[in-house]
Amino acid sequence: MTHAAQVDTSAVPASDTQEKSRAPISRPMIGVGFLLVVLSYMVNAMDRQVFPPLLPNIRTEYGFSLEQGGLLATNFTLGMALAGLPAGYLLDRFRRKTVLLVSIVIYSLGTMATPLATGFADMTLYRVVSGFGEGMQSAAIFAAIGAFFAHRRGLAFGIIGMGYSVGVFIAPLIGVKLMSVHGTWHSPFYLFGTAGLLIAAAALFLVKTGLTEHSAEKVVSTGTFECMPTSAYNRNTIALAVHSVISGVAIYGFLGLYPTFLITSLHYTSGQAALAMSFLGFGGMTAIFGGWLGDRFNQRNLLILSLLAVSAISVCIYETHAGVGTQCVFAFLMGAFGLGFIYPNTNSAIQRAVRPAQIGRASGLFVTSYYGPAAFSGLLFAALVDSFGWDRAGLLQVTVLPLAGALALTFVRPSKFNNAVH
Q: Which of 65, 80, 377, 386 is close enough to 371 for a disulfide, judged by CB 3.0 to 4.6 Å?
């Protein structure tokens, strides 16, 4: 990220006919703004991942079936998918900062509304609304940061991914602890929702438009993109989107029901399940390393190796019936490859597969393809569990599917990425 000192702060939304002058943004303000962006994404992760470890208690209170619980654990991604393409359209036409702030408010309010649900229908609605805001935020963050740090996009996304993983790590521990202290699963949702609103208020003043509205074309000004496809929806982006669909179903199906598997199949306590879930987040903190590797090596090959690793780890998780310590090691490895390597590199690769002016649409395509089918991954996993049991269901959804994702990636041509163009 050494190019930060020569940032072009003149970029404005595509809807403006002329660029407007902006005051230069200092390095300290770049750091403060980037930190707030990372913190906002950490809260995004906490809102998402506090639900699975509390799901057994939620199911007991409402009388939900395993299928209903599985759907609720992952259906927020339906909202993310619905937000993806519209957000990509808005990001290419309006201020990214505005989209970012609005999105944080939406998902925070959706999170705070979840404990107010009277049944399955309205809880589903609140989860989808929360996911819609999270999808908008994801598209806004990665479009803004992808443009600002165009030369170190993978590393920047890895740092953001590390923030997400910190949220995954601490959310189950905090959620289960608060539920134990207050005797209700409601309090974590109110706490995390309030945290999101506070971060949105801070970002309004401290995240400068010089960071969020930067033009990627200025950064990559030495390149020519005539040999790249003119459409944002080309061979590379389509292959990466197919991989995103498959990866989202496999990884989110696993995340949504992993604590339930540990409690109902391996007879872990809620605290032990929360600990294992936290190790997933701990593993995801390797995103900064995964993103760094993606900037320096062939991203397609790195993604294929990561998917093969997820397949192998899935066999260990569902076939060995390991004790708590060993299960935490498996969870760490699943987080490392699933969250630390696959997520940031898929996200940055799909932006590299389009011309710089199209990164808003690429970001939206990633959010829609990754999170859309994932909305039903928990329901699919639960149905497989009912039909075949946990072991075979895990092998089908978390072992076989990543192999199909690796096959889709063989159609990607990194030589057509914008960072390979001269």
A: 80
DSSP class of 21:
P
Name the helix (H) or strand (E) containing 260: helix 235-264
Residue found under tokens 């699943």: 334
Q: Give SS3 for 421.
A: coil
User: How confident is the chain (422 residues) per 10-residue block, as mean pLDDT?
Assistant: 39 41 73 90 85 86 86 79 77 83 92 92 91 87 81 80 81 86 89 92 89 64 65 88 92 84 84 85 85 87 95 90 87 91 89 81 83 80 86 87 93 84 51
Residue 40 CA to residue 101 CA, distance in Å, equals 10
Place of tokens 């040999």: 227
Rg, Å, the chain Cα set: 20
363: Cβ–Cβ under 8 A, 6 or more apart, which residues? 87, 88, 91, 138, 139, 142, 143, 146, 347, 350, 351
Answer for the pair 31, 210: CB distance below 8 angstroms, yes or no: no
DSSP per-residue letters across 75-128? THHHHHHHHHHHHHHHHTTS-HHHHHHHHHHHHHHHHHHGGG--SHHHHHHHHH
**Looking at the whole model, is its pTM more than 0.85?**
no
Max intra-chain CA distance, the chain: 62
Tokens encoding 129: 């609304």
Q: Are 276 and 335 in contact (CB under 8 A)?
A: no
CB contact set of 263 (below 8 Å; sequence gap of 6+): 56, 269, 270, 273
Name 342's Cβ contacts closer than 8 Å, sequence gap at least 6: 247, 251, 303, 306, 307, 310
Q: Is there a contact between 368 and 84 (Cβ–Cβ < 8 Å)?
A: yes
Distance (Å, rounded) from C-alpha 344 to C-alpha 158? 6
- State how far the Cα of 102 lies from the Cα of 207, in Å rounded to an integer: 14
d(CA 230, CA 223): 15
Q: 256 is written with which tokens? A: 């949504």
Quick one: what percent of the chain has pLDDT higher than 90? 26
Residue 102 is encoded by which pair of tokens?
């609005």
